[in-house]
Predict the structure of CENP-V/GFA domain-containing protein.
Amino acid sequence: MATSTAKFTGDPNSHDTSEFSDGISATCLCGSIRITINDNELFTRKRGHLCHCANCRKVAGSYVSSNLAIEKEKVVVDDPQGVLKRYRDYATASGKCVERCFCGTCGNPLLSIAEIYPTMIIVKMGIFPRIPEPECESFALHRHAWQGKHGDLPQFEIVRGGKQLGE
Ligand SMILES: [Zn+2]
Ligand SMILES: [Zn+2]
């Protein structure tokens, strides 16, 4: 049950995961752009990853970014005023372009489109009322020692599916 405080501070626990059994939807900070993920397994299994790479940290304004790489056709971007902006980032580990999309009005990072994953969109999960429990961490070599651990998540040294920390 959402309290008035939760409404403004975003307590994820004020949303039962059953609210998101068909997908999840949210707007950027100013409300200009709505992102909807149509997927019925967002909270029935682990989804997404925490990325510690320098670019994700810059975009997130934080020590980690909560990302979900998901099939393009499952993501709907509703941008009635056409304010979505794209920054073509080539300073990536792969050297391939990552198009970083954000709201041109409020600056909220929303999603990334990586040339190396042409069928996927990487959604920045911070905008949503509740974030699925992630599957793994990427660029775990670049973690800060003070941040603690996120349970027993697989920690890939660099790319997802690659060498794991301590292997
Ligand atoms: Zn906005
Ligand atoms: Zn990253």
Observations:
- The chain has a mean pLDDT of 94.
- Helices lie at 4-9, 54-60.
- The beta strands are 23-27, 34-38, 49-51, 65-71, 75-78, 84-89, 98-103, 109-114, 120-124, 136-138.
